[in-house]
């Protein structure tokens, strides 16, 4: 039982519920951390990670680039470790455990080239936590469920706070955006509590998805990255074949697999980015897909005109990645529960992959 007396059937479900605390603790851990001069001077960062940590980097990239006016590249650690291209700039290694072999190997390439590394870890006493020149920590608390939940949103928060701190220190990027984002992030514990309260809706959707053989998740910008995380979560926990795709790419292949009733989950913010996602989504709807749109209050009306179902998450477009992440976790969790799977220890998977 938790302090608030709630009991959960699985660690994974409890960890989904712990996101408000995990986010508040991460903010507390980051408070007062200063960026060293070489980081402030850098305008090109490479996020390197695996699994959900990689998708956290991908989801936060847009916010960092806008807040700080820098370029953020993304690299899959297992691919980057074998690349011939010389490392450039500063690496941001994102790893809950700090022990993922491929991420450690990618880090070694930066260090061998004499370049700085930033470790974003949950476990301070880990290889990446001990080796990185700068640790920009998350403080999500121990995560037992194999599938990342609270560590994912804590990584998103830490990355966005990094972008804000970097933009302020450099004096580059969009200052008004930084102010709005910083204020929105302060409100995250409440947003995540409200998102968790949408569990009954996630459960109903899970019952339908549990009867499907496949699911497609789409979005643009951060929504494309979050779509990949939503698909990964569903795969990991329910073993249903799921794909996350940038919606602008649908016409280059994935639209061919759409049949009558194919479930398509759309991650869309209620801001300027929405119209393009919805235009892409309506093209799959026209081929018979059953569209479920996740959005915020600003986007609900437009989404409802396109999607068969619209799920309006708490908060505005700035915090939409967090609210939608919580919902996607609940969706994957309940789909696995309906199917009777071992949610905390999915088949074939390990919490930390310490071999190449
Ligand atoms: C494994 C876990 C994932 C995790 C990934 C990266 O695949 O099952 O949940 O996202 O490793 O782990 P890391 O500790 O480096 O974040």
UniProtKB/TrEMBL annotation:
Its EC number is 2.6.1.16. It catalyses: D-fructose 6-phosphate + L-glutamine = D-glucosamine 6-phosphate + L-glutamate. GO terms for molecular function: glutamine-fructose-6-phosphate transaminase (isomerizing) activity. Keywords: Aminotransferase, Glutamine amidotransferase, Repeat, Transferase. Residues 35-172, 205-346 form the SIS domain. The lineage of its organism: Bacteria, Pseudomonadati, Pseudomonadota, Alphaproteobacteria, Acetobacterales. This is Glutamine--fructose-6-phosphate aminotransferase [isomerizing]. The gene is glmS. It comes from the Bacteria. The chain holds residues 255 to 610 of 610 of the full protein.
């Amino acid at each position: 039982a938790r302090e608030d007396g709630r009991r959960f059937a699985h660690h994974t479900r409890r960890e989904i519920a712990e996101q408000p605390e995990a986010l508040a603790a991460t903010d507390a851990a980051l408070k007062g951390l200063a960026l060293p001069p070489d980081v402030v001077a850098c305008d090109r960062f490479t996020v390197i990670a695996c699994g959900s940590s990689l998708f956290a980097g991908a989801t936060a990239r847009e916010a960092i680039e806008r807040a700080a006016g820098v370029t953020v590249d993304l690299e899959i650690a297992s691919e980057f470790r074998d690349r011939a291209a010389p490392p450039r700039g500063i690496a941001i290694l994102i790893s809950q455990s700090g022990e993922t072999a491929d991420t450690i190997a990618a880090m070694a390439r930066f260090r061998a080239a004499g370049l700085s590394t930033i470790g974003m870890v949950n476990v301070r006493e880990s290889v990446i936590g001990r080796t990185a020149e700068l640790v920009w920590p998350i403080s999500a608390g121990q995560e037992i469920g194999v599938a990342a939940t609270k560590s994912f949103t804590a990584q998103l928060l830490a990355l966005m706070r990094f972008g804000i701190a970097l933009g302020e220190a450099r004096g580059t990027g969009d200052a008004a955006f930084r102010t709005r984002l910083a204020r929105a992030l302060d409100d995250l514990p409440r947003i995540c509590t409200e998102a968790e309260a949408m569990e009954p809706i996630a459960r109903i959707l899970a019952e339908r998805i549990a009867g499907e053989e496949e699911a497609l998740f789409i979005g643009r910008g951060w929504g494309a990255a979050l779509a990949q995380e939503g698909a990964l979560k569903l795969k990991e926990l329910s073993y249903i074949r799921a794909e996350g795709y940038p919606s602008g790419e649908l016409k280059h292949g994935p639209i061919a697999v759409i049949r009558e009733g194919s479930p398509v989950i759309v991650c869309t913010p209620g801001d300027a980015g929405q119209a393009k996602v919805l235009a892409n989504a309506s093209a799959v709807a026209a081929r018979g897909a059953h569209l479920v749109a996740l959005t915020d209050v600003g986007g609900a009306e437009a989404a409802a005109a396109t999607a068969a179902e619209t799920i309006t998450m708490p908060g505005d477009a700035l915090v939409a990645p967090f609210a939608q992440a919580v919902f996607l976790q609940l969706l994957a969790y309940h789909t696995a529960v309906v199917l009777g799977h071992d949610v905390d220890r999915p088949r074939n998977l390990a919490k930390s992959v310490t071999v190449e």
